[in-house]
Amino acid sequence: MYLHQVVERGAPDLRRYLDLPEALAQVDLRAAERVWRVHFHVPVFRQSLGPFLGTQGYLREVLAILRTTT
Predict the structure, then answer these.
(1) pTM of the entire structure?
(2) Nearest to 7 by CA among 29, 30, 39
């Protein structure tokens, strides 16, 4: 699993990090309420990764449609 593209929302602005370890290194646990959004990928060859679901089912449907229309 690759964790990356962290966006931290807190007064007065947004802070962006390229990867989760970078964001964790900067975290201030004493700071006022912060909200993090972390974008990550489940590898396309996996249907799920623990509690996270991937897009494999959707991709199968799209590929089936493409096979019949091209």
Answers:
(1) 0.53
(2) 39
